[in-house]
Each structure stands twice: as structure tokens, then as C-alpha cells.
Design brief:
The protein has 362 residues and is of the alpha/beta class. The chain has 3 domains: 69 residues, 434 Repressor (Amino-terminal Domain), CATH 1.10.260.40; 138 residues, 3-Layer(aba) Sandwich (Rossmann fold), CATH 3.40.50; 127 residues, Response regulator (Rossmann fold). Helices cover 45% and strands 14% of the residues. It contains 14 helices and 12 strands. The strands form 3 sheets. Strands 2-1-3-4-5-11 form a 6-stranded parallel sheet. Helix 2 packs across helix 3, helix 6 crosses helix 14 and helix 9 packs parallel to helix 10. The N and C termini lie far apart (93 Å). This is LacI family DNA-binding transcriptional regulator. InterPro entries: HTH_LacI (IPR000843), LacI/GalR-like_sensor (IPR046335), Lambda_DNA-bd_dom_sf (IPR010982), Peripla_BP_I (IPR028082). One of its GO terms (molecular function) is DNA binding.
Length: 362
């Protein structure tokens, strides 16, 4: 039998034992009190943000914490203040450039306000979305930023509505570019997607494009329905094959363009549901030997990073991401503090003109 006691001083077991023996003892508030020459109750009041502490004593306590490299116990502070200074964020796909861009702005803005964010990436799976909603509430986040998923669904199942109502009673919720009208959320903060689509189509018309197809999107998603409604205001009866709700990614753009090429009549321009679909259209057009914008003008939507590096760069609509994130965080913090917040906030979008649109050939 192997004798542990006979191991060499350099064996794995002794190295772990040595590490356990020499590990530095964690600094406590008693150590801080001794170093600062104040009472333990004074240290406690400083840690808990009590404004009644004498300024000189506060400076001494903070200096002692710095010298001793003291790190406050976040769990204890959460129990005392009933605040974790943590926000939850649920979104369907962090790989999507749109959600990645928006989450980046939210995360930076939260950090500037003294909060950290726990991300729940649902990979567009309803069961995982429900799990994250429940888990984040159990983690005692102070509030929830909710993007996509159920907030964009045209219809929400009764059991999901019950879950969401229960959640809204337990913590403040702000939806971003979506809404839950039958749930008691704090605020719905949305970029003006309808206004952005209207500006995009008006831009195409100003370039002489009176025949425009609508490519990409999902019939059961509110943002698709909203943009399609704006499109139908200008083209209430487009030719067969000019509206292709094939999805939201690059492959969806390639499929939509392939279907469009089978239509009896061809448009001079296409308005895509987003930049990824537009990138797919550019790829498919190139394969067929078509020039963009010489033979066909193409627009995207979202102004995510790929829109700047496609060939040609895409004319698109920017969601005003920084402002969208700022107003969403402002509304959520109002909800956390129990102060009134506007039920809906609309953020203007920005038309971005690039090289994928040209005047219609004579």
C-alpha cells in the first residue's frame, strides 16, 4: 500500500498541503477596525454606505481597506441592502451581430452605473429561455433586460404569460426592441424600426426605384410584421414572388434571392429585413453575374459590422445603439428604485447611405 506520509517534500500531496498551510487568511472588518483605530460598528457603517459617518473616520477606514486589500463580501451586502448590483439580460443569440452590438452597449452602460450583467443566451430555444428567466430571478438580480424571444412573438402561450406575470411581480423588467403588453413590465424601449424602414424605402424612391421587393424575415416576429406593414403602405399589391419571408440569416438571403429570380417580373431594388439577409443577396447576385448597384440596388437594416465590409458596403439603418442602451438602463434603474418610468420609449433610427444603392438606370 502506498504510504502518504512517506511522500517526498516535492510530491503533489505535500505541495497541496503546503499551499493550504501558507494561504493568507482573509482580511475581516476586525482587522480593518484595528488598522484604522476605529470601532467595528464604524467600519460596518462605512461598508454599508451610511452617510452619518464622520468624514475623517471614513477616510481612515477606506485607507485601511486599501492597505489590507480588503474585498467586501458581496453576498452579505446583498442581504443587507436587498440589492445585488447585478442585472440579468436574456437574449436569443449572442452570435447575431445585432444582439452582440446591443449587448455590448448595455454591458458598458451598466458598468458605468455600478452594475454587472449576467447574460442568458437562449440560442433561440423556448425551453432555455424559460429556464433563464427563472434562474436569473433566483440569482436575485436587481432587474432584467429582456431582448427578443417572447418579447418579439406575435402570440404568447397562456403558460408563458403566467410565467412572465409572476416574474414581473418579483423584479422590474425592461424590454428592448420588443414588448410584453399583457405583462406588468416597467418600460418597452424600442428603436423606431417602422420609421427607419420608411426612410429606407423613401430613399429608394428618391433614387427612382418604384419597383422594390421585400426579402427575409419571419412571419411570427413583430419586427418583421412592422417592417412589412410599412412596405405594403407603398406597395400594397406587389407582384407574386416579391415578398420572401425566408428567415434572418445569410442563407435566408440567398434563398430569397433565388426565389425572386423566378418571378415573372424583376424589381430594380430589394429591401432586406436585415444586413445578414442583404449579405446573402449580394452573394447570390454575384454568383448570377449581376452588378450591385449597377443592375440591382440592395438595402439592409441594423448597421452591424458586416454591412461595412460587404462588397459593396450596404445602405442600411442604424438602431442608434448607444442611445437605445442608455434609455433602457435608465428606465430599469428607475424601476429598481421604485420610481415611475415611461411605459414606452421610442429611439429615432438613423439612415446610413453607402454604395449598394444607385439611381435606377434610365
Amino acid at each position: 500500500m502506498f504510504d502518504c506520509a512517506a511522500q517526498s517534500p516535492y510530491s503533489l500531496g505535500n505541495r497541496f498541503l503546503k499551499g493550504a498551510l501558507i494561504r493568507k487568511k482573509a482580511t475581516t472588518i476586525y482587522d480593518i477596525a484595528r488598522q484604522a483605530q476605529v470601532s467595528v460598528s464604524t467600519v460596518s457603517r462605512v461598508l454599508n454606505g451610511n452617510s452619518a459617518v464622520n468624514a475623517e473616520l471614513r477616510v481612515r477606514v477606506e485607507a485601511a481597506m486599501h492597505d489590507l486589500r480588503f474585498r467586501p463580501n458581496r453576498v452579505a451586502q446583498t442581504l443587507f441592502h436587498h440589492r445585488s448590483h447585478t442585472l440579468g439580460c436574456v437574449l436569443p443569440d449572442i452570435v447575431s451581430p445585432f444582439f452582440a452590438q446591443l449587448f455590448l452597449e448595455l454591458e458598458v452602460g451598466a458598468f458605468e452605473r455600478g452594475y454587472t450583467i449576467i447574460l442568458g443566451n437562449t440560442v433561440s430555444t423556448p425551453a432555455l429561455e424559460r429556464t433563464y428567466l427563472q434562474t436569473l430571478a433566483e440569482r436575485q438580480v436587481d432587474g432584467l433586460l429582456y431582448l427578443g424571444g417572447l418579447t418579439n412573438a406575435l402570440e404568447v402561450a397562456p403558460e408563458d404569460l403566467a410565467l412572465l406575470r409572476d416574474l414581473a411581480e418579483r423584479l422590474p423588467i425592461v424590454t428592448v426592441n420588443g414588448d410584453l403588453p399583457e405583462v406588468g413590465i416597467v418600460t418597452s424601449v424600442r428603436s423606431d424600426e417602422a420609421g427607419g424602414m420608411r426612410a429606407l424605402l423613401s430613399h429608394l424612391r428618391a433614387q427612382g426605384h418604384t419597383e422594390v421587393a421585400f426579402l427575409g424575415g419571419q412571419a411570427d416576429v413583430t419586427s418583421t410584421a412592422e417592417k412589412l406593414q410599412v412596405y405594403r403602405e407603398l406597395w400594397p399589391a406587389p407582384p407574386v414572388g416579391w415578398v420572401q419571408l425566408t428567415g434572418l440569416d445569410i442563407d435566408a438571403g440567398m434563398r430569397a434571392f433565388g426565389e425572386l429570380m423566378g418571378a415573372a417580373r424583376q424589381p430594380s431594388a430589394v429591401a432586406c429585413i436585415n444586413d445578414l439577409v442583404a449579405a446573402g443577396v449580394l452573394t447570390a447576385a454575384r454568383v448570377r453575374g449581376l452588378s450591385v448597384p449597377g443592375d440591382l440596388s440592395v438595402t439592409g437594416f441594423d448597421d452591424v459590422f458586416p454591412s461595412r465590409i460587404t462588397a459593396p458596403p450596404l445602405t442600411t439603418v442604424n438602431h442608434n445603439y448607444a442611445e437605445l442602451a442608455r434609455l433602457a438602463l435608465d428606465a430599469l434603474l428607475l424601476g429598481i428604485e421604485g420610481r415611475p418610468a415611461p411605459r414606452t420609449v421610442t429611439v429615432p433610427t438613423l439612415l446610413v447611405g453607402r454604395d449598394s444603392v444607385a439611381p435606377r438606370p434610365a
